[in-house]
UniProtKB/TrEMBL annotation:
Recorded family membership: Belongs to the PNT beta subunit family.
GO cellular component terms, A-Z: plasma membrane
Lineage, broadest ranks: Bacteria, Bacillati, Actinomycetota, Actinomycetes, Micrococcales
GO molecular function annotation: NADP binding; proton-translocating NAD(P)+ transhydrogenase activity
Protein name, per record: NAD(P) transhydrogenase subunit beta
Native organism: Cryobacterium ruanii
Amino acid sequence: MDILVYALYIVAFAMFILGLSGLTAPRSAVRGNKIAAAGMAVAFVATLIHIRETSSWLIIIAALVVGVIIGIPPARKVKMTAVPQLVALFNGVGGGTVALIAWGEFIESDGFTGLRVASGPVLPLVVASLFAAIIGSLSFWGSIVAFMKLQQILPGHPLSVGRLQQPLNAILFLGSIVAAVIVGIGSTTTGAAPVWFGAILILAGILGVTTVLPIGGADMPVVISLLNALTGLSAAAAGLALNNIAMIVAGMIVGASGTILTNLMAKAMNRSIVSIVAGGFGGGGKGAAVASSGDQIAKSTSAADAAIKLAYANQVIVVPGYGLAVAQAQHAVKDMAKVLEARGIEVKYAIHPVAGRMPGHMNVLLAEADVSYDAMKEMDDINGEFSRTDVTIVIGANDVTNPAARTDPNSPIFGMPVLNVTESRSVIVLKRSMSSGFAGIENPLFFGPNTTMLFGDAKKSVAQVTEELKAL
């Protein structure tokens, strides 16, 4: 029977890796997700076979049914603008689950004093359980705060206690470590042990809150990725404590992939992970609405004028951002692209690594409108195209098109790789107002000599431009 279980686990792991490899390209992402989901189903069946106790089966299946009932409706009905929040929430649930598993193992083994293994020392299993408890609780509460910031239940700008923020975080971290050491060495009485373990969960949970609160909205994509990596590592640690191979492998895959993604996104922002976690950056998109900056004046345009520029272009690049998601304008953009392509005009889409509110947000959004995967270009591939582009249309992509990142050493985002939209012959920016982006920084692009602003709801504005194109 054990041989069958291990064989099924190996099949599941292979499907996890195959599914993950499919996520490296938009064209194969859906297939990869389905393969990974099927692998999880195989691992679930293997776990049921391993347990063998029918009573435990019933409890697990009942929990599975409850999870399906709770999980499927929001996953099916959530709008694309709310997908980052959903990802943060689902990731938080994973971290919370790991913390509860550690708590359950603590209770089951009578405060770890009754923990026994067939061979080898007990201490590594105790350390793994305590690590899972700390990181799981931190990830759960940190993800909840990230969800609330993205959902605008909490302000998107940094919330901190100033200079005391980092000392406070250090005290909470050391406090959770001390409580874990006390539990681990078994120096507490039977009655006090649960209190100390509860202190671990509480202190780590507060640390998760105080770590994410000072981080601004502009850094939320990186935060979500980092918390996802932490959840994976905590799951792997819980797997070590339970001697569950499936949890170990799945957790390490999630932890490793999340860590790699976090590092790549931090590089795309020219920021270190430490500086991001330190917080204090990102204004939450509540910048003042202004029409000029010093002697510079933003020039507004109309749908008719924008259509004329587009009609005489040879190449057009669309730069999508969170504003596109908010307006749900992806289908309108696709309709406009069809009209342009019918005129022999080439249309491409420039995707910045941190555009939107989560990794791959814009890719998923455009794919929903059946935009060709080949037309979606990553930043490194498309930046050389702007100098040969007649018209670039920027839809809600504020910070990732800010030329101050290249030209202003005093800018908070100086050095951050951005899309070189200013090299285009003409730039049309679609925005509701002149407000700053999620980082709370003014964008000099809006006042550029080759830039015009088309104000209004992006979906309606694009639809109007499309109608004007058809009339030409």
